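dude i think i finally got it to work??
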Amino acid sequence: MKARAHMLVSGMVQGVSFRYYTQDLAQRLGVHGWVRNTRDGQVEAMFEGEKEVVERMLEFCRRGPSGASVTNFKVKWENYRGEFSGFEVRYW
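look at this
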């Protein structure tokens, strides 16, 4: 089953390669979408793909890469749209 999740994490999540590791994992798992830093110090991402692999992405983001300290994790499940052809790092 295809799924779409919009995720937002806060804590020590910028300056620790969170976006790089998220993009790397998404590309290895075949998840489409994007990840970006927000101006208020959070990391935001949109994931689309098979539900099981989207859940693996969310599991990674709940803890982040080494050096990160996630203190708040929010996810909103949305209807799958299939609007992305790959996974990218976005800037603002």
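The domain at 2-90 is CATH 3.30.70.100 (Alpha-Beta Plaits).
im so relieved honestly
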